Amino acid sequence: MGEKGFEGTEEHSGALEHAGGDTPRYAIENPGLPPHRPRLADEDPRAAKRAERQVSVFFLISVLGTVLFFIGYFGVGQIGNDEDFGLLFLQNLLLGLGVALAMLGIGIGVVHWAKTLMPDHETIEERHEIRSEADRAAAQGMIADILDESQIKRRPLLRNTLIGAAVLAPLPFIFAFRDLDNTDNFSDQAAENFGPERLRHTMWAEGVRLVRDPTGSPIKASDVTLGSAMHVIPEGLNEVEHGKLNEKAKAVVLVMRLDPSKVDITPGREDWNVDGIFAYSKVCTHVGCPIALYEQHTHHLLCPCHQSTFDLTQECKVIFGPASHALPQLPITVDDEGFLVAQSDFHEPVGPVYWERG
Amino acid sequence: MKALSQNRRHPLMGLALLLLGLLVTGGLYSVASTVNQAQAATQVTAAASADDIAEGEKLFNANCASCHGTGAAGGPAGPSLVGVGAASVDFQVGTGRMPMQMNGPQAQRKSTQFSEEQTAQLAAYVASLGAGPGVPEDEYLDIDAEGVDIAKGGDLFRINCAMCHNAAAAGGALTRGKYAPSLQDVSAKHIYEAMETGPQNMPVFSDSNLKPEDKRDIIAYLKTIETNGSPGGLALGSLGPVAEGLFIWTAGLALIVGFMVWLTSRSS
Amino acid sequence: MSTATNQFQPATTTGRLANFIDTRTGASPIVKFFARKIFPDHWTFMFGEVALYSFVILLLSGAFLTFFFDPSMSHVTYNGAYAPLRGIEMSAAYASSLDISFDIRGGLFMRQLHHWAALMFVMAMSVHMLRIFFTGAFRRPRELNWVVGCFLLMAGWAAGFTGYSLPDDVLSGNGLRIIDGILKALPLVGSYLSAFLFGGEFPGYAVIGRLYALHIMIVPAAILLLIGIHLFMVVVHKHTQYPGPGRTENNVVGYPVGPVYAAKAGGFFFIVFGILALIASTVTINAIWNYGPYDPSPVQAGTQPDWYIGVFDGALRLMPGMIGDFSFLWNIPMPWGASVSLPMGVLIPLIPVGLLIVGMVAWPWIERWITKDDREHHILDRPRNAPTRTGIGVAAVVWYSVMMMAASSDLIATHFHVAFNDVLYTLRALFFLGPVLAFIITRRICLSLQRRDRETVLHGHEAGVIEMSPEGGFHERHRQLDDFELYRLVSFDDTRPTPATPGRNGKISGLEKARAGLNRMFYEERVSPVTREELVESRLHGGHGDHLEPVGVGARNGGSNPEIAH
């Protein structure tokens, strides 16, 4: 009995043909669908009744879920300004659970219905060829006729001028996007209104005070104690009406103090610090995240976005991570009143590298 | 430590802190703007009982001197503690970071090894060796005081702290295995002391950078978001998109696949 | 036509309604076409549905959010319910996102539902594509639909990223900052592309409004169009099916749309909705109130994108910017005096991700070129029966995962108490080794599984019963497979390598040699399916012949269950 299958019995194959015509491809021929196994509910009316009750219970749970939503919506109500956050948590929970039950009740109920009560006989549908050769030939013929009737092949003048016109016609709609770059036209600070040149300049200039971010209070050299790190913006930034964030995105600076003898200073930069107070651009030279993490003993600066690490004792050279060049240093000094001021703008563009940076 | 932070609003706690503040020396603040306060603290130094300092010295010699050297002058395994001030000792010992269990990238928070009294005695002893930041005044730890601005504290926190400690103060990574710890369940006093002294690789946020009122605002903000909890449900460690992605790929996918398998299986 | 209405008189209300519609739209043929159409049923076929339903939920929850969100970057002072931000200056976009979260009832739930549905949407599409790939469902005639699916996946990324940025918080703002940095890195056009996106310098005042237009109109419209094409082609091709008894290349075996499949698929929509609602009500996502309003100065530990952008972010993290003193910032002098900058540290990481995307889109043609298999396939491959493809797929998944894991290097470091430097060093090594190892190991596993299939076919299942022969030897009794199971295990093709063939000029080109080489790699190591002769041999004279317990279908059912026996 058990050996019948590979002998090629047709016993179970029913209406099925096996793939590959007369010569069988596989060790046994396709035996056809396995026999249908009836479910409990197919044979036992009580089981069917039980399934029906189960489905309706799921639908009732869904109703309860909807009610729960309204309890959360109106019962908890509008949450006032100084009320406990616990209420918001509760409301979110009730609304969400209400919706979840309402949806799951319907979903599970319907699927249970389909699984237990709807017919579960697997059915076979024939596939048809996606295209027929006759259709293809007819379509090809039609296209040829259409092209012929349009005379486009016979009249090259028409064809060529049409192509020329069609190529040019969309250009206005491409060039109309030129003013996607227009908001700087209204900026208080923009030195240049278009093009990459503006990326070279920041608000820093000779005599601009270093002030605390975000309060804007100026910093005395004595305020910067050993081991501290200050987040600094140029004075006047907070008063910029339009374009404040644009300027801030370039001008943010981190000020740290360390023992000056620990730092290798390249010639020409000796007077860029004030007694071991160094100011460096806070914008990563990789893709521009703020490098705000300062480790006071290792003197490492770390970018939390991609882990570029810069060594303050080597003038913020890259020692780890994807950044490829050192952070720009802001030359600083003190003014008559003892406040930290910039000597000039940065000597190179800050932030991510761009093509025209050079 | 948790008990300490939970009991921080206990009426006797204020008294205890007051006593602690009186007993433990503040030392000299390094910055001119707080000279007055520092002077006040120095005056208390005289009042700090010689007994405490003597007890502290005994504790120090028994527990700390092996690394930090006799007289806290520094040793092969630990830095000099002359001039670090009482705040530093109170933070390091009070959060269980000192004594260190083993050498690692950084000292970890663990259960404390000394009682509050012993900690105060140790702090008194170290403070007597040289002036340094003292244990914070009580008024700067009272986050319900008049004039506390939570929103400003939040602003300052985001500018000065969130890059290391994460936006919800859940902690973050530093270089070579160091990390900024979570600030959950850290007492107001210890947060204040950490800002004041810059433990390990944390920068110092001296009073000239963040005024004591600013520090109080930051603490008030932290305590507010801690008590608020997460209104949206489980916070997933407040770690942001990575935790959320992990959740959808584990719990979310498991739920979906579970239903899919049930849906396509044959009913019995 | 005028008589048509008189020929049929519906008796019921439903009938009258149906008749009304039919006489005006001619919908009957459509009903006839779809109502009893057959769809195969297998749990792995449902990931596409999950994606579709997630998208519907995204449209519903997104529509709600648009009524309350203000995509403006003008400055306002927040005065809403969330005390820790009251009095802070912020953009109107961020303020309205806070209002949705705290002041509008159900707003927080809708935000969370929308964001969770987005993560689910992209996840479901990804898993769906993995299923398609590993079962070979992309083969002729479905190559174009595979490409449509690839574009859908990418449109899903775009929809996700544009939405992630809308609240204008510090986290997403830094994400945009990274996009700005990547755009600027592109040669020649970079700084202009950035300026066009942001309306001048970063961050500008325009980008949120522009992302909003993309997020609520252009990208969803593209997704809808692609879904339309995708589903239309599914109908044209009919669904694939796993190999098994009764399944052939010329048929579809499954359940009819009405009522079973429609009920299951329709019910499943509500289940997906319910699951997402459950998650949205209990698990916080994107707690924007913690992040604060965007400002270029602050940043926070754990700055990461949503998971599907992680692969880009991780690739950026893996790339070393300096090796020793060699910098990947190349400044190239130009003949006219100025010099131009190429930040290779940003550009190189785009290559592996680009390769993955191009490889994914082009795979059906790559495989067809290598295997020279241009037949139509409606029966799926079991992944083990295509060991090389499965190996390549797993290698790609590993490569992708290594890059994605790199995006959470800092969190891996803090959670497992290791240095993120070491995490990145390890991942850099795995970036090169991982895919190779994955390919070799996966292919080995596939071949072993195929061998086990052969064993099972020839010797049956181990019955777990040990018998002692009269001579004292011990044998485990084996239970023979029934025909249905047998057919599933033997019905795959034994493809042999096709050697290089000369071109029209009679010579074998270099390309053809490469093809033949790849083809050999594809098929050289293979486990052939059991042949008819082997099967007969094993059943009649096999070593375990004495111990076979001949259980065919008939024997199993013989008499004991008369309803099943034929």
Question: How would you describe the overall organization of this protein?
Answer:
- The complex is a heterotrimer of chains A (358), B (268) and C (566).
- Chain A is α+β, with helices and mostly antiparallel strands and 358 residues long.
- Helices cover 31% and strands 12% of the residues of chain A.
- Chain A is built from 7 helices and 11 strands.
- In chain A, strand 8 (309-311) and strand 9 form a beta hairpin.
- In chain A, helix 2 (45-76) packs antiparallel against helix 3 (85-116).
- Chain A is extended.
- Chain A starts with 39 loop residues before the first helix and ends in a 16-residue tail after the last strand.
- Chain B has 268 residues and is mainly alpha-helical.
- Chain B has one domain (2-228).
- Chain B contains 12 helices and 2 strands; from the N terminus they run αααααααααββααα.
- A two-stranded antiparallel ribbon of chain B has the order 1-2.
- In chain B, strand 1 (172-173) and strand 2 form a beta hairpin.
- Chain C is mainly α and 566 residues long.
- In chain C, strand 9 (461-468) and strand 10 form a beta hairpin.
- Chain C is globular, with a radius of gyration of 30 Å.
- Residues 1-5 and 543-566 of chain C have low confidence and may be disordered.
- Chains in contact: A-B, A-C, B-C.
- At the A-C interface, helix 3, strand 1, helix 7 and strand 9 of A face helix 6, helix 8, helix 9, helix 10 and strand 4 of C.
